[in-house]
Every structure is written in C-alpha cells, then in structure tokens.
Amino acid sequence: MPMNFNSVWAAMEDCQRLGLTKSIGVSNFSCKKLADILSFANIPPAVNEVELNPIWKQEKLSKFCKENGILLTAYAPLGAKGTIWGSNKVLECQVLNEIAKEKGKTVAQSFNKERMKSNLDIFDWSLSKDELEKINEIPQSRLCR
What is the model's pTM? Predict the structure, then answer.
C-alpha cells in the first residue's frame, strides 16, 4: 500500500504550527517525491537527509534541493563500515587517500582526544583545482543498501 504523503505531511505541518517542532523534513526523498510534497505543502520540507559522500554526490538531488530551499544533510558521509547495510569505500578511496596523504591529513576524523586536537588544525591547507577535479571524477555508486 503506497504511503499517503498528503495526510502525513499535513500532520507534520500541524506539529510545526502548534510549536511542537521547529522544522519539519524528510529522509531519503528523491526529486520526484520532493516535487510531490512541494505541490501540496503549505510548509515545505526544511531538510532532506540522504546518503551523501564523495562516492555518491547525488548532484541532481543536490541541485533540486538548492533550487527549492531545502537543506541537504548527509548520513554515512564516510561510509558505514561494520554495518550489514553499508561499506567502507569512502575511507578506502584511492583519490581521497592520495590527497589526504599529500596534505598530511587523513580521510576521516574521529572522536578520540588526540584526533580532536588534530581536527582543530583544519585551516592550514586547501584543495587545489586539480585535487577538486580528481574528487569530482570519482566514480559514483551507492554505499548503503
């Protein structure tokens, strides 16, 4: 049975109007599903949370969200190592590892004390046009099933 987005979205709008939530949004919505909601919504989605990373940039969706004032936020930005539904392709990406090594950095950051100190040292470098082009040329594929 297909989801009735109209009634669900209307209820979410009521929650926002009643002050029960500051914003309302969606997760894993395609351009088509977002367009459907925008066709009847009084309050548009504030955010769409999707899988988004250098291996899966979702450029069409990103453009659509930007044009419609919907923030795009990422889950699994570094992949999903150790889960049954994800992979470690971002951390293993040769292009990203080569660039990180050239910068004396790592592809990923972590939450341990030593790593947090190094995380604060992020403004002493920038990516060159060539490096940005290399990242943009990374073959695209979903990491999460």
Answer: 0.72
